[in-house]
Design a protein that fits this description.
The complex is a heterodimer. Chain A is an alpha/beta fold. Chain A has 15 helices and eight strands. In chain A, the strands form two sheets. A four-stranded parallel sheet of chain A has the order 2-1-3-4, sandwiched between helices. The N and C termini of chain A lie far apart (about 40 Å). By secondary structure, chain B is mainly alpha-helical. The chains are: A alpha/beta, B mainly alpha.
């Protein structure tokens, strides 16, 4: 059975999150998941919209969702923030007829909220199934100690998101195990990275990033896994700035979960855009011989 | 010698504590001390606060009286360290009729809407929605204690309004200019540019006018009283 979804990439996946888009498409195709991009989708408004107007924060994602209904498919959303806003819009429209009417008037088309909105993580791990993923692995990620970082918006608020455990989600940890890596048990998996504060209020945002990196390091991780382009940007691009706060070095490469899936399946670093990170992951990947067939790795040969 | 000095210290601190307790009790009798009563008329502020509280409750769809002040929200708040009035206190200010003080708080701008408080609240109060409502109302009244966060939000929406999608490079350049820090993150730009992560050209929807109309209709609805 082929799995087919309407795909909402969101703004970041065409700019600062190109690695996520690239690796997601490659891995989905490999695992037999068809992602059909929503025609003429628009920005979900992220946190700027709901900081300014509640109605706008529902209307913006509702327009893209209404467009996706023409495809007659459930929607897969890679970005955690987009997923959060789209799910919030879907739930509000489902719960209130009045809101449904207002939204239809504002976006100039009908939005029925008939189809599901899912995070891409849910689609690629739970809908595909860990067994199928295990079968696809050709280069197990032995030696990678992975701190899976879920952040806020995938799991909270639990009443609306309905995805995994709110305090101790395990989807990515189980995935890491299936890929042959070692999931790290740590305390900051659902802490906030500060989102846009790293730009608009660095005195608040940067220490938040530092705490996450520090906790991952203290618990023995040698890399971090994310499912959100903003979390990725904060942890990767701002890592240098965060480490300078206390003159520490973390050297923690950050990956999208789709990149680690791609690596384990057998894609090259270039195909997954692993060469575009700020904290270069190649040193770690080469040290652990990830690119070699398991039988020819140094510890075995 | 050491024992004598310890005993002396104990006596002095006991006397000090007793005096302090008597003073504190007295201040209880006369409200919050004479000086405070001279400075502002609390009854005036309480009356003034009622309509603001009502507006916040309407905007957020939440009743502030539900909160029983356990403090779990503030204990788990990742940005409480940078707040003047953490979430529990914002709710308390609204409950006791000091809404003006809530409106002037930096906290509502610092709140990152991470939803941790809402996920943990034993009374199920949607605190982020309350913070959001306070922020929206404060902005309407022209109270913006965190200018840069406000610029960032405004520019973000402006970018969405004109293109239908966010143009990250345009947003950051404009933000740096508006916030008077033109070279912020300038060292990161070359790598982002070479990796194809930022571009001087925005991605657009087919017809950006459609998005502009959406913004207009939202504004019309809100002016007509829609929440």
């Amino acid at each position: 059975m082929t799995l087919k979804y309407a795909y909402y990439p969101g703004c970041s996946l065409n700019s600062t999150g190109v690695e996520y888009n690239q690796s997601a498409k490659a891995v989905a195709k490999h695992l037999g998941v068809q992602l059909e991009e929503i025609d003429d989708w628009n920005c979900c408004g992220a946190s700027a919209a709901h900081n300014t107007s509640h109605l706008l924060s529902i209307a913006l994602p509702a327009r893209s969702l209404a467009l996706s209904e023409k495809q007659g498919l459930d929607v897969a959303v890679p970005c955690a923030a987009c997923f959060n806003r789209m799910k919030a819009a879907q739930v509000e429209v489902r719960e209130s007829k009045e809101m449904k009417q207002t939204i239809s008037e504002v976006i100039g088309m009908e939005y029925e909220a008939k189809y599901e909105v899912k995070p891409l993580l849910d689609v690629l791990v739970n809908d595909v199934g860990l067994d199928k993923i295990k079968e696809a692995v050709t280069r197990p990620l032995t030696g990678l100690k992975v701190a899976s970082y879920y952040g806020c918006l995938l799991v909270r608020p639990p009443k609306t998101m309905c995805f995994d455990d709110v305090e101790d989600p395990m989807t990515m940890d189980n995935l890491v195990e299936a890929l042959g890596g070692e999931p790290v048990d740590w305390s900051y998996k659902v802490e906030c990275c500060g989102a846009g504060h790293s730009t608009a209020k660095p005195s608040v945002g940067i220490p938040m990033i530092r705490d996450i990196l520090k906790n991952a390091k203290l618990n023995g991780a040698n890399c971090i896994l994310t499912a959100c382009p903003l979390c990725f940007l904060n942890l990767d691009m701002r890592q240098k700035e965060a480490s300078q706060l206390h003159n520490e070095t973390y050297e923690l490469p950050v990956f999208y979960f789709t990149q680690l899936m791609g690596l384990a399946i057998g894609y090259s670093a270039k195909e997954l855009f692993i060469n575009k990170h700020f904290v270069d992951p190649m040193k770690l990947l080469e040290e652990k011989d990830i690119f070699r067939h398991p039988d020819t790795r140094r510890e075995k040969a | 010698m050491f024992i004598i000095s310890q005993a002396y210290f104990c006596i002095i601190s006991t006397i000090y504590k007793t005096v302090f307790i008597i003073k504190k009790n007295n201040s209880f009798k006369h409200g919050r001390g004479g000086r405070m009563l001279e400075e502002f008329d609390i009854s005036y502020q309480l009356n003034d606060s009622a309509p603001i509280k009502k507006q916040i409750e309407e905007l957020s769809g939440e009743q502030v009286k539900k909160c029983y002040q356990c403090g779990k929200c503030t204990a788990g708040c990742p940005v409480a360290f940078a707040m003047d009035n953490p979430p529990r206190k914002i709710l308390r200010l609204l409950q006791v009729g000091l809404a003006e003080e809530a409106l002037e708080s930096k906290s509502v701008w610092i709140c990152a809407t991470c939803e941790t408080c809402y996920a943990r609240c034993p009374r199920g109060v949607d605190i982020p929605r309350v913070m959001e409502a306070v922020r929206i109302l404060a902005k309407k009244k022209g109270i913006v204690p965190e200018k840069n966060i406000n610029y960032f939000n405004d520019l973000f929406l402006k970018s969405v309004k004109s293109n239908g999608r966010v143009h990250e490079m345009g947003l950051i350049v404009m933000y740096n200019l508006m916030s008077m820090q033109p070279f912020k993150d300038a060292t990161l730009a070359p790598k982002l540019f070479l990796d194809g992560k930022i571009s001087p050209f925005p991605h657009k929807v087919k017809n950006p006018l459609e998005i502009q109309r959406l913004f207009e209709r939202v504004r019309e609805k809100e002016e007509g009283g829609h929440i």
